[in-house]
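Example 3.2
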Amino acid sequence: MKNSINRSRSGLLPRLHWGKLLPVFILLFSFFSLTAQTKTTVWVPMKDGVKLATDIYQLATQKTGPVILIRTPYQKEGIRSIAKYFATKNFIVVIQDVRGKYSSEGKFIPFINETQDGNTMLGWLSKQKWCNGNVGMWGSSYLGYSALRLTDTHHPNLKSVFNISGWIDGYKVNSPGGAFHQMLIVPWLLNEGQKTRKSVKDMDFETIFKHTPMIEVLPDLNFEVRKGDRISLKELNPDFAYQKAKVPVMHWSGWYDFVANATIDAYASLKKQGKGKQYLVIGPWYHNQWYHENPQVGDYVVKKNAQAKLKYMLDQAIAWFEQTLRSPSLPSSPSVKYYVLFEDAWKTAQQWPPANTHQTLFYLSQDGKLNPQRRDAQNPTTTFIYDPMKPVPTIAGANFHFFLEQMGMKKQNQLEQRKDVLTFTTPAFRQSKTVAGNIKAQLFVASEGLGTDFTATLTKVDTAGNSWNLVDGITRIPSKKLKGKVAKVNVELGNIAFQLKAGERIRLQISSSNFPKYNRNPNTGISPFDAVKFKAVKQTIYHNSQYPSSLTIPFLK
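Structure, written as tokens:
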């Protein structure tokens, strides 16, 4: 591993790498030899009369064929090179600015109109002479969300979806564990929350994230604060009928993608409840790494067998659409293909988590150990002080790709020296083991706060003593669950696959903040969005036979 971390002038957050993030796909695809194509721009009316700007790409000699539909809030011209590449493979490609963005009419309210407008667009395509009735949808992130939201609409022309880092359940992205994912939502809204992109490269996000009350930094986009301190747009997550979904979907994401758990959940829920066949590919990547083609994920150097290459991903999408739009058969490959970190190898399975896993519990103990057996302790608790004015800083993880230096895997040893970060570590493993699945912690806790947070991070400790972050999670606890008593809470850390070599250990970090990734809980009972005063409180972790706090690890058999 290479350990080179560049810091910004402020020290808390690195400088934003906007030059690497702009959708310069024309440059990326300048080496493609594109045959003669035509581009037509039309304005497609929605049910309420609002017209959406739409570009149609096709070979000059092509009269009819299958269609790939892409609906984007990021400006259709930004991905015209991708459209042209798909068109060279005899697909007719339709790209549309969603409602209220760039050349389209109407008001942009993120996520709200994509199901209705997308369904109307499918209906319009079905009436075009050049559409042979077979439509597939492609897209990354918001574009993937826009496609997935249509898979339960029963539109007869939607035959398949290629989803990269898209989701169905928005709460899993913006409010994991009930906490507000401010390091994602605030910069994204400031950047994309209006008709055209607003540059935020010179914004002082360290100051923005610390501002109180926090609600003042959120753009006026019809926000409401809901119970449990979740914040979302009204109707952000309208009902989705998984059992009615019949469309086959290929899902792609990466272990350090902040959407990974929501993408995996979409795959698993559609596979379990829906009728369309589902496929999943999970690599070592971070969000939209395809457009950076960076060979590293933090300090983890990705081997050539798994590096994020845009052309490779697009070729995989083309192969998918060849089978699902031109051929009546679906891929016969295993349902899941996943990358094992530290082994640097791909594995396959018929489901996620893999069926051949064994859930192993490790119990927290007073001496900072994780033990496979419960032990009665002379001191059944461990305590620390959580001060929201001195929060535990975010150091790497599955974070927003605007902040590249905070992405991926990095050493956690210095962070673990803090008094407000508890660590519990297993003995060294005697032989190599592979972990594959969802990591969970069950904690028995108490707090002096009137509502508080608990965070958990899983790391791998190598034989040199370096502690590398793998997954992390948070849970926000309302005051009514505490009230001076011991509370049982579950922390979902998320999905991961990695190898432990002989002599290595697993470590669990416990604290109460991960800032600025999540907004701070003031411990006062006041909503974190409205709080201007914060209170330092004592937090208690219980670990005895009556209150056996534990960590669940899924090992491959």
